[in-house]
């Protein structure tokens, strides 16, 4: 089970014809897949579609009833390759991942899939993470659609449209023998809404109704002459078929408006933002009635040329709302109009930014700018200027009062995170070893590059830290340290990194974060998962054994919370005469996860009268001098500051707040770093045994007696 | 209602991961759905799920489905500035962020925000005080929000033992922005089915807070000591009134640290500063008030004896119990993390011996720190600490005592010499002891910076004529040292400050 359970929500997947589904976008997509009669589903987790994987896993009983096969794929490449089932057999299949990073990984299989073509509908649900909060490099999925010739759906972000496009996506895929991608932006994945459901469909070919004969068709194989035949098919057959289907089924939508000499063409995903901005500018109501005619592209590739020229013909100016760069749509629409000899003026990236997420404000300003360019004389545009002026005034007034920017709140390691102490150890080791190159990877551990650690020189992709160090190592005076998560290791790091390094006799150091599950995407299980609640059907592969199996001679498993041991092991790895890859497995489950599991158990135990020791850390405010070096070596959210209670001092003192899970890193750090004596660990003993009580009582009595006897200094009672 | 007038109620919740913002958004969505209002919500969870800023965005059409016929509202997934009816911030910084983005407007936005602080990493990792002034956010909220509702919700949740999101739900109900009665919210909480009783009492707390705001007395975090004593009387005679408040704190502190004579030494030192101040023609306390405060802190420096004393005092146990939230009478075990090394032990030896030991360790390149985990709740642990604490009689004979007091005297001399030249510069020299903080390596770096500034900047300036902007430059140097743990930047600024000084004496000093 992942971090979040969907056991309750998946019941919505059983809804039948005429029921109403209420829930999250990604769950609605899952329901739509079942309604479309998929034979198999799979994917690789990554925000914002991680929940889809969680939902599928939690929906096993329902999938079993329908005979739908679910595969938790090892990577996006594996997920894309699984779609190969639809090449020879008329089975519908769907996979999901985070784009564009996942699409990059999947590209090899996708190219082959798109070239071979499919008999059964193949749908790829893409979670897009584009914008200033994105955790991945910023690129467009659109390029993949164009280069491999796969169709790209970008539905209006409301549940009925998304669900319809899932259904139509399969039909489009089958009508044109081409895999189809459906992209959902992060807010659409998380949007809660409703739609009217249909019955689930048991697939004709399924685990409950298996195939008997293998289909052989050389034209589906990537060898000449088939490869070129496939290329011809794309141009001569599949593309025209797709355009015809999009046109005939009216997958793109036109909404009329009374300002007929203007128009807006947009990606479907932009529709709601466009409508809200139009309504704020007095150009639309709350029910989708716009004064400017709209052409909404629920299919952004391929375009339907005659629809575009038909919409634009006779218009003075048309705005293209297209998020991201390059401006593929704008360029293509220009070409379409030129070919059709339509002279409408096109606006797009001249009034909207070339790059970056089209947030509410960006959209508002862009459309107002368009209005300014085309509509000076019209009464309809009276409100646009004032709206923008008011916004500018409010924002500049806020800046004026606030003085300077409110501090950012970057992501960081959770309270009690097992990765934090590894970087504390690394920061301390650097004091002795000097600066060395750290090759980072994708995962929570990438946060090491942020404050307070600022560790990590390069990030080249998921599971690729070790591979990305191979040319630095031989050209660097010290060994290079690569950091990899267990997720990245199983994704591809084992081959691209470990096997390659052993094969090439590279002399690097690899730290594998072995906390038992993927972390950043929401605690999904991987081959080395071993948490207590796991069912026994999973494999619990040992990472240390795997390393030895791959030929690594120097492997150490260190408990991640033991900072001094970690520091010493790292120093040894960096300085030992032994050549070859040296692997440190930093093992330990996150204390927050452990506490979450234990908390209800402990609570119940305490209620039953059982003895429970609850550890927590604290700081003596009078000993702390407020230099915060502990914070710079930890960054734990529970290690914070509070006003100095000492009236003679100025700087705030360190303070451990109630969110502390007692992972022990505070004590470890202050010891390993020789920081300061301010930290203490307090263990509250709930339901102490008689022995506890007696010992406690005796100790207190003796200590009090000693205090009186020795006339030990008694502090002036602080006025609390 | 015509199409033209109908617009959704827009609600933005800014939270930190793990605060229960998602559950709050669920309750509201559920309430709207149950009442038959069209509603949509979406979210952008923080990247790390727990620490990053996380936002939830909800739109509710205030016309029920039953009155809409076949009309379908189009809801936005992004908040547009200028359209928000309600902004909720679980922490005051998030309210500031919402205002920066133009989401709070005087014509329509009700702003519900908790005034407590959860410090951002950039604020708390500063070696001194990097806290953002949240009063500015409160001021902005008062001006920019149509209805500002600001409370220390964290305080409320702690005193009433309820959860933050339930209190916020009560406040949202109390604000009257949404078209639901109290019972609608309560039913939503019941239907969600988790910790229902606790959340309903949280809801009641929030509702009551908005309807009848509690008369809050601003909690003073500082503790103050006011005890009449012969020492205090002595101080009142010797010192100008501006210093009496500081004396009230300093005297018991230094008596506790060492003895009455040591406290008298503070009075004498402070008095000599006050006299010099008067002779220099400065107003009483203009320089001395702050300097005397820093002097008291400095004189009670953090050696092993003091640390052991703090950790073995009779009142310590109560402080620990309070800090970790233990109830009186509970069995609590306490482990202290100490790791003294050769420098700390050398500090405790007579100066000659201590210096030799320290130099030997420096040559050896190791400080040989030994990690100790002392169980201060056990008899042995207590005895260890209390024995160390009772070494006070020995302290005046130690290297540390000698060095600290020599530096103090040099600093006092510099202050007196500066008074005659430049009052602003004097005040800045008075602030310099703040650089000496921390333990172990942190402390030696801090003392190193202090020593450099005194020797390479202050001394040459005082030997000749300080530049006209001396105070500004010294302040810049101090702020650099205290704002950033990066020693490189400090060293560069130090070189820069030396290099920019035209006086020949300074150049000589720099070489």
Describe the structure.
- The complex is a heterodimer of chains A (720) and B (511).
- Chain A has 720 residues and is of the alpha/beta class.
- Chain A folds into four domains: 9-247, Thiamin diphosphate (ThDP)-binding fold, Pyr/PP domains (Rossmann fold, 3-Layer(aba) Sandwich); 253-402, 3-Layer(aba) Sandwich (Rossmann fold), CATH 3.40.50.920; 420-593, Rossmann fold (3-Layer(aba) Sandwich); 611-709, Alpha-Beta Plaits (2-Layer Sandwich), CATH 3.30.70.
- In chain A, the strands form six sheets. A seven-stranded mixed β-sheet of chain A has the order 3-2-4-5-7-6-12, sandwiched between helices. Chain A has a six-stranded parallel β-sheet with strand order 16-15-17-18-20-19, with helices on both faces.
- In chain A, strand 13, helix 13 and strand 14 form a beta-alpha-beta unit.
- The longest helix of chain A is centred in the first third of the chain and has 23 residues, at 226-248.
- The model of chain A is unreliable at 712-720 (pLDDT under 50).
- Among the domains of chain B are: 9-211, Pyruvate-ferredoxin oxidoreductase, PFOR, domain III (Pyruvate-ferredoxin Oxidoreductase, domain 3, 3-Layer(aba) Sandwich), CATH 3.40.920; 304-397, no CATH class.
- Chain B is built from 23 helices and eight strands.
- A six-stranded mixed β-sheet of chain B has the order 2-3-1-4-5-6, sandwiched between helices. Chain B has a two-stranded antiparallel ribbon with strand order 7-8.
- At the A-B interface, helix 9, helix 11, helix 14, helix 15 and strand 21 of A face strand 2, helix 2, helix 3, helix 4 and helix 10 of B.
